[in-house]
Write a structure and sequence with these properties.
Length: about 350
């Protein structure tokens, strides 16, 4: 996107053969091999070379690799250069958001996120796509928002078929990205198990509420869930098996053993580990996330899929809006008397 928007782009990659292929053929043989990359992207395996005199860095590795790559980049990153993270997850063990991880490894650099409904394979084919860029806003950024890191990156990336909105709710945008992956696994599980659109719409709505509650507990903003990174990405990821998270859930719902999903290929499914990390974070903050907890129990604690979703549906009946804080026992809940 940045190259299409006319920027000078250097791409750091791990694999020498891929760097050479990109430079020689403007194709990446390992990822999106059928799609020509815009000419002029300079790929390198030399981190110092990739980062010299750069104005901004986009870090696009899975969340499990963010700390390692930040640490590798740290000695080479010019002073004060902003770093935008694209991974959608929470760190295992620490429960840190990705920006907290990067801030630890890259002190003195503004750290933000780029997130939203953005299947790479569609964006690269020029399907009109929109995302959110979030960076913290300091006092100066409020006085001159167009000079903020968020606005500068937004302008850097936006082109004919790609636009970015800006936000200062970094934690909110990050939580949206981490939670939507888990909800997409839930939607896939139910769809794979033979349930249809009512179920999916309910899970999306409950998932949106879980995001909102967790964001609130972290001091983020309610409205963020209604933005591109929230409702936008949640509805995208929960709508088709183009999403790896939804695809994993669908296969599990069909009864395919985990080891045989994706025909045994290794595929990045962020929501799988993040089901644990999101639940741990929520537990620490005293937030209930029933859909996310159901996914965690099925994926990691051997819970039965059908029984777990039946229990999810038999939870106490709630009021909308949930601020009314009312709940009634479900007549089908364990131990309840079933009405005639
Ligand atoms: N693919 C998509 O459509 C979107 C992906 N994302 C997020 O972007 C992040 C990355 O996902 P994808 O690019 O799809 O994954 P991917 O598997 O397609 O690519 C990941 C890239 O990171 C590299 N990588 C993996 N581990 C590494 C390590 N330890 N050190 C250095 N490089 C490493 C891989 O070689 C590969 O180039 C995830 O958090 C995902 O949720 C966000 C929006 C859209
Ligand atoms: O985050 C994504 C689209 O915005 C990609 O989703 P998956 O990781 O589920 O493929």
């Amino acid at each position: 996107m940045a190259r299409r928007a006319g920027r000078d782009v250097r791409l750091w990659v791990r694999d020498e053969a891929i760097a050479e292929a990109i430079n020689a053929t403007s194709h990446n043989p390992a990822y999106l091999p059928d799609i020509p990359l815009p000419e002029g992207i300079a790929a390198t395996t030399d981190m110092a070379d990739a980062l010299r005199e750069t104005d901004v860095v986009l870090l696009v590795v899975p969340s499990a690799a963010v700390r390692e790559i930040c640490a590798q980049a740290a000695p080479h990153l010019p002073k004060g250069v902003p770093v935008a993270l694209c991974a959608k997850g929470i760190e295992e063990g620490s429960g840190y958001l990705m920006t907290q991880v990067a801030e630890e490894e890259l002190p003195g650099h503004p750290v933000g996120v780029l997130s939203g409904p953005t299947f790479a394979a569609e964006a690269v084919k020029r399907h009109p796509t929109a995302a959110t860029v979030a960076f913290p806003f300091g006092r100066d950024d409020r006085l001159a928002p167009e000079k903020s890191p968020a606005a500068r990156l937004s302008v850097t990336l936006s082109g004919l078929n790609f636009r970015t909105h800006i936000s200062d709710d970094v934690a909110g945008v990050e939580i949206c990205g981490a939670v939507k992956n888990v909800i997409a696994i839930a939607c896939g599980m139910m769809s794979g198990a033979g349930f249809a659109e009512n179920t999916r719409a309910a899970l999306i709505t409950l998932g949106l509420q879980e995001m909102r509650t967790l964001i609130g507990a972290l001091g983020g903003r309610d409205e963020t869930v209604m933005g591109l990174a929230g409702l936008g990405d949640l509805s995208l990821t929960c709508s088709s098996t183009t999403s790896r998270n939804m695809a994993l859930g669908t296969q599990l719902g069909q009864g395919i053993p985990r080891a045989e999903c994706f025909e045994g290929r290794p595929v990045v499914v962020e929501g799988e580990l993040n089901a644990i990390n999101v639940c741990d974070l929520a537990a620490r903050l005293g937030v209930a996330m029933p859909v996310t907890e159901t996914v965690r129990a099925i994926l990691h604690d051997g819970a039965d899929l059908q029984a777990s979703f039946a229990a999810l549906w038999a939870r106490p009946l709630l009021a909308e809006p949930d601020t009314m804080a009312l709940a009634f026992t479900h007549p089908m809940a364990e131990g309840s008397e079933v009405p005639e």
